[in-house]
Amino acid sequence: MAEDLEFYTVDPDDEDVERRDIKKLLTECGLLYEIGIEAFVVCRDGEKLVACAGLQQNVIKDVAILPDYRGGALSLTLVSEVTYLAHSRGYSTLYVYTEPKNAEFFRGCGFYDLVEMPDTVVLMENTPIGIKSYCKQLQKHRVEGAKIGCVVANANPFTYGHRYLIEQAAKECDWLHLFMVKEDVSLFTYQDRYYLAEENIQGIPNLTLHAGSQYMVSRATFSCYFLKDQGIVGKCHTAVDLLMFRNHIAPALGITHRFVGTEPFCATTNKYNNDMMVWLQDPVRGAGPALDVVEIPRTEYGGTAISASEVRRHLRSGDLDRIRNLVPPATYELLKTKYVPLVQAGA
Amino acid sequence: MELKQEALAGTLESSDLFIRVSPSEDPLEIAIESEVIHQFGEQIRATVEEVLAHLGVTRGVIVIQDKGALDCTIRARLQAAVMRAAGETKMDWEALK
User: What's the total number of domains in chain A?
Assistant: First the structure.
């Protein structure tokens, strides 16, 4: 049997026959064909498609093997192949979401548990030291105190609302850790968002600004966040991201409180905020100590809560005057000099 | 040899091993997972350390998923991974001994 097996890579958007067969295989295995998978490694036994594994950047998705072909060398070859494929595309550390009952299979392929949402899903990465060495780095920034706060912000771009939230949180805490979302899929580049955070937090004495990582609000931990603008929410495992925070990141820094702005506009972010109350606060939900979630009402301008999405809207319509009231000078300058021309060139 | 980029070698198939080496600022960190870790774990680690020492690798992260590979396979795969990571093409046959 093994002699007849052929492995190769397909682009599901370009190859209709392959895509059709992959969909059929996934259906037979009780899985859904996920949109946005850039490449599949597939295995055929003669004409028949018997296994596939999809890759979306650094996340392995839609792994399916026909029952008759499970438990043997095929599965290991499949995972080796998809790892090489990812490597050739520049992705080293890989993540996989799988049902808890299939986690053992991936453990045998060099994946290690990061976090488990009981009875639902396990997030794994293909290194035993990734999260460990990340937390070791974080520990260097640990500040002792009774109340250690944390804000995680995308700040796309940084507004007076972010400044207000961070200021209020810092006032309530002995020390505040601010993380910038690293994933570079927003209108504003990570580099620019980080720079604006640096500029706009000046004067707050008890604060550490951290680079983001793949372990918080990333494609790996919270993929649907980055699809929200397309309105695709789907099955959204906010719990995975929140448990990563509770079990790994918060203990490394001794974080006791997570601060968040109220979310009147975006359904995905609102769900994330509500889920925080459950997955961070409930004493029995996570392995790490329970945290307090503090929701701070959004600051307003002219009777409306300030939001980055509104700023982006004004940017698209070229309404700089209205933006001026919503963002600090550093953001305004960058918008004017870089992003207005960018948006105009795009439109 | 200095590891300049991440590199892979090997497979997850039986009697082989999968190696991932990555550059790092910190001293060598070696993580080995093996189906025969209880019988041969120390021997595998000794082989890995010896090959790395011979190749002069002092910094980096080495992650190994062993599926019962023979000693010679471990040496060959590890050297291949290190050479790929160092951008080196000239084979050092001594390291395979």
Answer: 2
